[in-house]
Amino acid sequence: MSTTSPAADSTELPEGLRRGDADYRRAVLAMLAAGLATFNALYCTQAMLPTLTTELGVTPTQSALTVSATTGALALAIVPASILSERFGRGRVLVASVIAAVALGALLPFAPGIWWLIAGRGLQGALLAGVPAVAMTWLSEELHPEHLSRAMGIYVAGTSLGGLIGRIVPAGVLEFASWRWALGADALVAALFVLVILRTLPAQRRFTRKELHVRSEFAAMAGHWRNPRLAALFVTAFLVMGVFVSFYNYLGFRMIDRFGLSEALVGALFVLYLSGTWSSARAGAWASRFGPGKVLVGMVLVALAGIGMAVSGNLAVTVVGTLLFTAAFFAVHSTASGWIGRLATADRAEASSMYLFCYYLGSSLVGWFSGTVLVRDGWSGLIVWLLALLVVQLLIAVALTWDRIRRHAARRRG
Fold this sequence. Notes:
With 414 residues, the protein is mainly α. It has helices at residues 22-42, 49-55, 60-88, 90-105, 114-128, 130-142, 148-173, 179-200, 214-224, 228-257, 263-268, 273-290, 292-309, 315-343, 348-413. It has one domain: MFS general substrate transporter like domains (Growth Hormone, Chain: A).
């Protein structure tokens, strides 16, 4: 695999890859594997939070730091990783990032205690940052715009499948071994996805190398906040990811305490992630047909219904609500991330980095704070808190939709 850019010094960039091209298929497969590897590693402790709480003698909020520290460090490292990719290439940063993070993951089972584990997970999150920092930009640069939405949806589908595997594998191992063996098994699975990336990622053809000017990079990111539509999508990333991680961080405690499920059965609930795999892959087609704003509004309404159902004391109702919420979340993320690529006609890498910075910052901060809400107010209080955040997101989605309709009408009159 080569990650150098043959077009780096050329004024005539080749046409973007189209469906049917061999390199298009290889690119989609590589980015699918990148999503699988990254999110497998990112959330590998989430399904075992009740076990970590019990075996290490800590609180649920402390055990949840093994997730929040990872996503928080990733959020802080995304911008530097994106800046480095402007100089050294998207592919090089992506490959170096995923190799280093997965290698570190193989050491985590030897952590002597919770705080060592939290520190190691934080470092792993920082190393993982190179993948989400550049993956969407790589696709936006290398693929023809007409074929971008589908590929972006497949990448997001890979992130949902990766998250599923990163939860199911450790949960299954916990049935017959300790949390250390569970982490080790997960690291081995992530390493297999890395091999796929190394074998399939095509050379970049449309990347133009830039000199590193940190001030100008941060100025470009700040400039994106002056675009109201981009700013609304950045806030969308913060809110919906914060709600999603908060819900799944503490769902296991609810399933064990209220319904008496075993660790393996709780892990099996993450099969519901497959609904997100399907919805994220379909979201691009929905956005093309109905418009991204309408898709956001519709899916946030579905998420509200799903979260609301999860307050039920009935197991079946809770599971159906979780299914609806999961599918809606991934559709929102796929739609919003694809919309970023279309709205940011310049400095796309910086726009994607800011979106992902807000995305993972929401995961870390809201995910951590929601633990204090759970301890203070219980499961019902947590659900009310998450519903309130989703209502704010619904208002943002409605505003984005109205703005898009107004702009379209103005263009027709013009």
